[in-house]
Structures are given as structure tokens and as C-alpha cells.
Amino acid sequence: MQVISTIAELRARLGAERAVAFVPTMGNLHEGHLNLVRLAREYGNCVVASIFVNPLQFGPNEDFDRYPRTLEADCAQLQGLADVVFAPSVNEMYPVRQTVFVEPPPVANELCGASRPGHFRGMATVVLKLLNIVQPQAALFGKKDYQQLHIIRQLSAQLDLPVRIVGGETMRAADGLALSSRNQYLSVSERGEAVFLYQALQGMRQAILQGERDFERLQQRAVETLAARGWLVDYVAVRNQSDLQPASPVQGDPAQRELVILAAARLGNTRLLDNIEVCLIG
Fold it and tell me: Is residue 175 part of a domain?
């Protein structure tokens, strides 16, 4: 496995490859990342993982400075899974001040975008840069960041990028908590409570499968329940999988019968994300 830190060296290494599969990460790897890297082998003979904490997608009061940077440990975990690790510096990715940005679709201003203005603009810009640098045939992203995955799929489709965007299933701890690099911020007591976010979404999913269609009431009930347990809730939302617009199932319209429940909430100082898909039958 090669660890490469410059764009020029990476392009030279990948120049002769014809089937590259790419997994972009911000490092501090966990089993969710590693599962994507394993899955990538099904889509390319050469697997590239990037490790780059992108300053463009962090707001002024967010955790860019304290975001865990564990390159040596990450490379040890990737040994035998990836062929190349691309670990550029901020100066390598942004040798001059970035003044050209990708403008994401309007849904980027909703859900996570409502409380993190500019986040998806910065994310989409660095993803496009990375895809241009690596030029893979397939790129893999986790479904845990469902809104991010949706925006990346729109980016690829609307800008006619020659890359297949693959979504990997959310990996969870034994108790159901979605794996995330930010989970390490949780205290012991917060870690015990954190699984309740997923349990709340499971309860909403079960209610929908049993016929509940008042999504506003379901959302409000979940927000109130979480708040009563000490969570600071950003949102709980039932959306269509296809476009992330508010769900309103229509009989006979398959596009509006594939739903996703999304949530973001803070527990102490840690912001947690989760989602669960719901497919209605008949």
C-alpha cells in the first residue's frame, strides 16, 4: 500500500489504472469506513482511500480544529484493504484561496443545511476536486450521511461525471448506534443514551409500516420525546428517498412509497446523525 500526499504523484501512480474505486474519508477510521473500502474492491482493481479533513465544510464554531487526526493508525487499518492512501495537506488541496465553489441543490439548505450553512457547498466542492484528482470509475459513500449522499448523486448526475456513485449501508455498534468518528466525543453516560436516537427512528418506522400517515405528528412526537430525555434536536423528518422532499405517499406512485426518516440531534456537545429507510408495500 502506498501513502501519497501530492496530486502530481497520485496522478502518476493512477495513470495506467483502468478500474479505480475510491473512498473519500476525513480519517479517524472506524468499521463503517473500512466496510466501504472492502466494498470498493467489488468496483475496481485499484482501491484508493483519501484522508483529508476539509476546512471548507466546517463552520466557524464547529470542530475543525479538534476533529481527530489519526493518519498513522488509519493507514495501519487500511493495510491490506486499500492499494493507495491519498493524504494531502490543506495547502496541497487549496494552494490558493478557494474562490470557485459548487452550488448544491436547494435541498442543501434544509435538514442539516439549515443549521450548518455552507456545509454542503464546501463538501460538494471538495468532493468534485477529489473526483477530478482521482478520476475513479466508482466512488463509495456511506448512507449514514444520507443528505450528503443524495447531494453527491445529484452532483455526479447533473455535471455528467463519469463515475458511479455507490451508497454503503450504515454500520452500527451492537446496540444499534450508527458508527461515527464523533462518537468518541460522547461521555460514558451519553454513550449509553445515544442509542435512543436510532430507537426513536425504529419506532417511527414501525408506526408507518402499521399505517400511520400523519408524518407531522410522528415527527413532533419524536422531537418531544428526545427533548424530554435531554437531547437538543435539530430535526426529525420523514422524506422521500428519491428527492428528499417531505413525504406524502400517493397510492400507486412508487417514488413516493420509498421513504427515509432522518434525524440530527445534539447530546451534550456531540451532534449525532442517523436515518432509517422505509419501503411501503401495496
Answer: no
**Total of domains in the chain:** 2
User: 150 with 15, same domain?
Assistant: yes
- pLDDT reading at 255 higher than 60: no
What's the average model confidence in pLDDT over 118-142? Answer: 98
**Contact call for residues 87 and 50 (beta carbons, < 8 A):** yes
CA distance 263 to 79: 34
- 24-62 pLDDT, tens digit per residue, is 999 999 999 999 999 999 999 999 999 999 999 999 989
Closest to 209 in 3D by CA, of 246, 147, 261, 253:
261
- Indicate whether 71 and 117 sit together in one domain: yes
Model pLDDT, residue 61: 84
Helix ranges (H only) for 135-276 are 146-158, 188-194, 196-209, 215-228
- Is 33 annotated as catalytic? yes
DSSP category for residue 178: B
**In whole numbers, what is the pLDDT of the chain averaged over residues?**
95
Query: Which residues touch 87 (CB under 8 Å, ≥6 apart)?
Result: 3, 4, 5, 50, 51, 52, 71, 75
16 in a domain, yes or no? yes
Identified catalytic residue from 30, 33, 119, 150: 33
